[in-house]
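Board notes, transcribed. Complex of a protein with phosphoenolpyruvate.
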Amino acid sequence: MTKSKKTTRKFVIANWKMHGNLESNAALLKAYVDQLTGLNSTQVVVCVPYPYLAQAQILLQDTGIAWGAQNLAKNEDGPFTGEVSAKMLRDFGSEYVILGHSERATAYCESDENIAQKFMAAKKHGITPILCVGETLIEREAGVMELKVGKQLDAIIDLYGIDVFRNAIVSYEPIWAIGTGLAATPEQAKAMHLFIKHKLTQVNEADENTVKILYGGSVNPQNALQLFMVENIDGGLVGKCSLNAQEFEGICQAAETCHD
Ligand code: PEP
């Protein structure tokens, strides 16, 4: 078990997607440990491809940096070829799992209901779900971004009630900002984070275990501080820049600087 449960103000979560190999991961994780273990108020989490969970567990144990996966099965166990359960993730010390990432939702037709069931499976096994929500460019241009994000959150609330969001993480990831180099403006992010916060008000009233709301989509060392200073942005989910130790450190330092 990692000692990752410090009193956290901001989260910075690396999404490695389908990148890396044993050798490059070892170097990157070593750089993370060298550069990031001194942070006081930022929880760093690395979400690696499944085969590298054991490597993350060995190299990150007792460093304060937590690790997790990028998906899980909604089922406990059984004849589900190619799937990985929450219990299996726990076997490798995973404390977090990214769910509903738009790359998966698009490529593998994941429905909101399916994602909701995965969310519950994670909670049931003590894994913190990092639920990705966000709109396409067409939806933004049509002005229906809150409708879209509200529907994604309602899929979970309708099935399991709002309380399942306690201690969970929601990451607002406008699909048009992911991997494009074009992040949301602080104003765009502010408006959506406020919407999500209001939607989950009941959870936020219990401030001990409030839901964290992160921003994801082309976060880099240059824009991180400006984004993280926005009210109700509790940190970032970082794709591309998490593969570069220097850039990732810059983002983590921004989070550390601007915690409230
Ligand atoms: C992501 O895929 O979750 C993401 C935020 O990617 P990027 O930082 O590369 O936009």
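The first strand starts at residue 10 and ends at 15. The two ends are 28 Å apart (CA to CA).
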